[in-house]
Amino acid sequence: MREKLSLATARRVALAAQGFAERRPDGPVTRRHLNRVLDRLGLFQIDSVSVIVRAHYMPLFSRLGAYPPSLLEAGAYARPRAMFEYWAHEASYLPLDAWPLWQWRMRRAERHENIYGRLAEFGRERGDLIADIQARIERDGGLAASDIEGERGQGGWWGWSDAKHALEWLFWAGRITASTRRPSFERVYDLPERVIPAAIRALPVPDEAEAHRELIRRAARALGIATSADLRDYFRLPAEGFRERLAELVEAGDLMPVQVAGWTHQAYLAPTAKFPRRVEARALLAPFDPLVWERARAERLFDFRYRIEIYTPAEKRVHGYYVMPFLLGEAIVARVDLKADRAASILRVQAAYAERGAPPETAGELMAELRLMADWLGLERVEIMPSGDLAPALAALARISA
Description:
The protein has 402 residues and is α+β, with helices and mostly antiparallel strands. Helix content is 39%, strand content 17%. The protein has helices at 7-17, 31-41, 58-64, 69-77, 103-110, 117-125, 127-140, 145-149, 162-172, 198-201, 208-223, 228-234, 242-252, 295-302, 362-377, 391-401; strands spanning 4-5, 44-45, 83-87, 91-95, 177-181, 187-190, 225-227, 256-260, 267-269, 281-284, 323-329, 331-341, 346-354, 381-384. The strands form 4 sheets. A 5-stranded mixed sheet has the order 10-11-12-13-14. Strands 1-8-9-7 form a 4-stranded mixed sheet, sandwiched between helices. The chain has a 3-stranded antiparallel sheet with strand order 2-4-3. Helix 11 packs across helix 12 (228-234). It is globular, with a radius of gyration of 22 Å. The termini are far apart.
């Protein structure tokens, strides 16, 4: 049993668990590849920001390279579907076999627990509207909020209309689920029995404690090595009872306590963890990639301080609006502020910064990945703006290849 690991070993374990120790496919990316990444990660976090591409498309690209985006869309909404939508880390695509594991959260939501406070209040106060909208979906089939009230209302909490509140409450409670999304990215809701395959709905539903244990197991497999806080954050599990579930998993041999050099908190190793001798990765990472979404863990593993600055006023931003870390080998060596200018067919590198200790080949490897991304997005060229210490080297490479 490994009781103490070096930071370098822990980093390789984490990268291997996330799929970065494997070569990208040489041929076409297929449904088999999608299912393998989904099974490894346990979810894809959904985000609507499309400065480059919506973030849920990125984990597959980061691990597999260029693939048809329709592959993810078909896995989410076409039959036979591979995923369903629900609230996990945040709004997420989850593998179908996880449907029984989230019934505890749905039941809590029905009791107005483990749900956003204002939405819980709406559920308590507007049961009549909720019942009416559920009945309408049962009668008419899939509906979006705009089908009920046209455009999103200006009043109400968060600017949501009452119809949107009712639909979201029903979604949290598992009484409806997402059947598809429209080109505007608006959810269309329908009954689970018309979306989730009967064989999945017939699976045994574990009690809440066992569901939490299984979700912790899945988080551990996805992370490879993690602290208690990392494991709880992965699926945003409640704090109450978490220590007990963790102790039960250690007792059962499903988690192995270890120490990582330089970490102040106890770490836990998944029994399935791989220990590659080296990792030769190259990937641009979305802000919501599970390798970096827990910012304290990214700093512990990679000495990489990362903050998304979308909501920071422009004059106060340090690195840019939508910044992607660049993973090379076993380190995060750079970060780039990117924008897909689809009208001009350009991938714009608005700023590029090297991390401390970045190797000499960083600019060349990053440029290769930027070109791969541009091709994947159907953009004709990469344009480098003169901002950041890595920009001159990237600009020189762009001129050479022009």
